[in-house]
C-alpha cells in the first residue's frame, strides 16, 4: 500500500511569474511566507502569492498550494510521483515545488475541490489552512 501523507492547502492564491533570465531577484519576493525562485539560461521564474507580484508581469494566476508535511527525506523515492499520478489520472494538472524538507503541489483554484477529494480518496489527510 502506498504511503499516506498529511497535506494542507495554504490560504493564499499563488501565481507563477516569468521574468527575463538576466533580471535580478526582485525585493518583493524576499518578504513572502512562501516563494520559489528558479533561474535558467532562458528565464527567471518566480512562484509567489498573487498579491505580492506586480500585475504587469507575465504570469499564470489562480494556483492553490498544497503542502506535503514533512520533513521528507531527500532519499525517499516516489513521493511526488505517487501524489501527481492520482491527480493526473483525474486530469488535474500540477506545478511542483520542492525544498530540502518537503514538497508543494500547486493546482489551479478551479480544480482544488476535485484535487482534495482525489487525494483524500487515495488515503491522504487534507487540511485547509
Describe the structure.
With 129 residues, the protein is α+β, with helices and mostly antiparallel strands. It has a single domain (6-128), classed as VC0802-like, CATH 3.30.2130. Helix content is 16%, strand content 40%. Strands 1, 2, 3, 4, 5, 6 and 7 form a seven-stranded mixed sheet that branches. The protein starts with 5 loop residues before the first strand and ends with a strand.
Itemize the secondary structure elements and their pairings.
Elements: E1 6-20, E2 36-39, E3 43-49, E4 58-68, H1 79-89, E5 95-98, E6 103-108, H2 112-121, E7 125-128
Parallel strand pairs: 1-7
Antiparallel strand pairs: 1-3, 1-4, 2-3, 4-6, 5-6
Radius of gyration: 15 Å
User: Which structural class do the helices and strands define?
Assistant: alpha+beta
Total of DSSP H or I helical runs spanning 4+ residues:
2
Number of domains: 1
What is the CATH fold-level name? Answer: VC0802-like
Number of strands: 7
The amount of beta strand, in percent, is 35-45%
Mean pLDDT: 92
Largest sheet: 7 strands, mixed
Indicate the CATH class: Alpha Beta
Question: In sequence order, what are the helices and strands, one letter per element?
Answer: EEEEHEEHE
Helix share, percent: 10-25%
Q: Which stretches of 5+ consecutive residues score pLDDT under 50? A: none
Distance between the termini: 28 Å
Amino acid at each position: 500500500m502506498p504511503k499516506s501523507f498529511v497535506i494542507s492547502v495554504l490560504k493564499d492564491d499563488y501565481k507563477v511569474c516569468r521574468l527575463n533570465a538576466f533580471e535580478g531577484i526582485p525585493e518583493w519576493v524576499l518578504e513572502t511566507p512562501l516563494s520559489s525562485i528558479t533561474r535558467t539560461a532562458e528565464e527567471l521564474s518566480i512562484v509567489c502569492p498573487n498579491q505580492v507580484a506586480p500585475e504587469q508581469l507575465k504570469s499564470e494566476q489562480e494556483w492553490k498550494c498544497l503542502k506535503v508535511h514533512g520533513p521528507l527525506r531527500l532519499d525517499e523515492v516516489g513521493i511526488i510521483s505517487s501524489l501527481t499520478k492520482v491527480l493526473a489520472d483525474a486530469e488535474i494538472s500540477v506545478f511542483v515545488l520542492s525544498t530540502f524538507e518537503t514538497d508543494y503541489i500547486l493546482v489551479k483554484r478551479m480544480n482544488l475541490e476535485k484535487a482534495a477529494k482525489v487525494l483524500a480518496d487515495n488515503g491522504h489527510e487534507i487540511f485547509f489552512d
